[in-house]
Amino acid sequence: MKARVTVTLKNGILDPQGKAIEGALKSLGVDGIASVRQGKVFDIELAGATDKAAAEAALKDAADKLLANTVIENYAIEVKG
Amino acid sequence: MKARVTVTLKNGILDPQGKAIEGALKSLGVDGIASVRQGKVFDIELAGATDKAAAEAALKDAADKLLANTVIENYAIEVKG
């Protein structure tokens, strides 16, 4: 079973990396970019998980324990059947 | 107009960071994780873009020029209305 966990900064948290990318895109002449915020994505393969609820529980555990810093980040879990 | 660009490593490209996360999850006792691969996500706000095709063209340009290393990475563009 495959899944994707997407971790993004919460609203209001400064993102200097995103700001740098935004500046770089402007100086490269890419038009129309108003703002950029960077996040992380984890493509996870689950072994032996047969039902979606169990998979989601394991991924929530993983995200809370390691993948995301829940003080400043949000995460979204997407299990792909 | 909002958009998301997701950059992931191509198949066959080694991902030591993902391997480290996999090991860490195992030692934290999170069960059922077979493999982890890490990627990046960019949440981009487009200024003044009115049609989807123009937005996609600008994002493709941004991904090719800066966001992804197309030798070892794939990217996916998703424009949100």
UniProtKB/TrEMBL annotation, chains A, B:
Catalytic activity, as annotated: N(2)-formyl-N(1)-(5-phospho-beta-D-ribosyl)glycinamide + L-glutamine + ATP + H2O = 2-formamido-N(1)-(5-O-phospho-beta-D-ribosyl)acetamidine + L-glutamate + ADP + phosphate + H(+)
Pfam families, A to Z: PurS
Entry keyword annotation includes Protein transport: no
Entry-linked InterPro entries: PurS, PurS-like_sf
Keyword annotations: ATP-binding, Cytoplasm, Ligase, Nucleotide-binding, Purine biosynthesis
One annotated GO molecular function: phosphoribosylformylglycinamidine synthase activity
Pathway linked to the protein: Purine metabolism; IMP biosynthesis via de novo pathway; 5-amino-1-(5-phospho-D-ribosyl)imidazole from N(2)-formyl-N(1)-(5-phospho-D-ribosyl)glycinamide: step 1/2
Primary localization class, coarse: cytoplasm
Annotated transmembrane regions: none
CC terms in the record's Gene Ontology section: cytoplasm
EC number of the protein: 6.3.5.3
Family: Belongs to the PurS family.
HAMAP family in UniProt: PurS
Free-text function comment from the UniProt entry: Part of the phosphoribosylformylglycinamidine synthase complex involved in the purines biosynthetic pathway. Catalyzes the ATP-dependent conversion of formylglycinamide ribonucleotide (FGAR) and glutamine to yield formylglycinamidine ribonucleotide (FGAM) and glutamate. The FGAM synthase complex is composed of three subunits. PurQ produces an ammonia molecule by converting glutamine to glutamate. PurL transfers the ammonia molecule to FGAR to form FGAM in an ATP-dependent manner.
Quaternary state and interactors: Part of the FGAM synthase complex composed of 1 PurL, 1 PurQ and 2 PurS subunits.
NCBIfam families with a match to the protein in the record: phosphoribosylformylglycinamidine synthase subunit PurS, PRK05974.1
UniProt-recorded name of the protein: Phosphoribosylformylglycinamidine synthase subunit PurS
